[in-house]
Amino acid sequence: MISIDFDYYKPENIQEACDLMARFKTEKTNAVYYAGGTEVVSFIRKGTLKAKAVIDLKGIEEMAEIHANEDHVFVGANVSLNQAADFKPLEPMKAVLNKIGDRTIRNTLTIGGNICGKLPYREAILPLLASDANVIIAGEEGLSEKKLSEVFDMRLKLSGSEFVYGFSIPRNDQIKMYSKRIQSDIPIDYPILHLVGRWAEDRLFIGLSGFAGVPRYQWIEKDEFDQWQTPIDKLIGKFASMAKEDDRAGAEYRVHLLEYLLEDMLGGMENDQL
């Protein structure tokens, strides 16, 4: 049950949505964008989100589309995780996305919602970063496309009335991604550590969720990697200080898990078993 009153709007296009948000900011009315609603509804119910206006983006039909050409895959922000995971041109991302929640949760959780939500895990960002994806941002001036890695700094940096419209992912059916997720014994739980790795030509991608307070990642140039006598120690050194301590696991334990997964990942890479 939702115990607070708010105004509800369902625009049919980008401009209408952005104009509404701009108006509310001018009026100093607390407004939120709403798409999948998994987190927004939960926070409103708990009283931790005091929205006076909700702008439902599900009326913008193209944000629920997913399609591909020879070069790129477009994934609208309102596409569910299951839709993305089951879409053949995104096969390299499937192993990562299928580890988030269960199939029922993934039917309602959108890729945009997972990445833009307030929860700190945002696991879907990792395969997108590993794929050199672009993010398509809607604003008052229309659509703009930017490199995701340039806009994501622990969280997506959006300003004013902007929201994520979708993602453009370079199509590469030969991509191999490593993905291992460690959680508690609860069947459905957030990750204590989720590691995503990928060799991309002359660079190595390492992305972590659950390890720090927010997703963290590094690209390591192959020339640098090849000079390391102890690669695992060097990789741990890049992330160890970020390890968080909470009631689910200590920082030292997370570093131990990171070492274990890095050994597993690099062993697979050496044997071409990613």
Structure explained in plain terms:
- The longest helix has 20 residues, at 251-270.
- The protein has helices at residues 14-26, 38-46, 81-86, 91-97, 103-108, 111-116, 125-130, 148-151, 222-227, 231-239, 251-270; strands spanning 7-9, 31-34, 53-56, 66-68, 72-76, 134-139, 142-147, 163-170, 178-182, 193-200, 203-209, 216-221.
- α2 links the parallel β2 (31-34) and β3 (53-56).
- The chain folds into three domains: 7-56, Uridine Diphospho-n-acetylenolpyruvylglucosamine Reductase, domain 2 (2-Layer Sandwich), CATH 3.30.43; 63-170, Uridine Diphospho-n-acetylenolpyruvylglucosamine Reductase, domain 3, CATH 3.30.465.10; 178-269, CO dehydrogenase flavoprotein, C-terminal domain (Enolase-like, domain 1), CATH 3.30.390.50.
- α10 (231-239) crosses α11 (251-270).
- It has 274 residues and is an alpha+beta fold.
- The protein contains eleven helices and twelve strands.
Total of domains: 3
In which range does the helix fraction lie? 25-40%
Please give the radius of gyration in angstroms: 19 Å
The description of the largest β-sheet is:
5 strands, antiparallel
- Class computed from helices, strands and strand pairing: alpha+beta
Element string (H = helix, E = strand):
EHEHEEEHHHHHEEHEEEEEHHH
Mean pLDDT: 89
The N- and C-terminal alpha carbons lie at a distance of 45 Å
Question: How many distinct beta strands?
Answer: 12
In quaternary terms, these chains amount to single chain
Number of helical segments with 4 or more residues:
11
CATH topology descriptor of the largest domain = Uridine Diphospho-n-acetylenolpyruvylglucosamine Reductase, domain 3
Which strand order spans the largest sheet, edge to edge or round the barrel?
Answer: 4-5-8-6-7
Principal-axes geometry comes out as globular
Beta-strand content: 15-25%
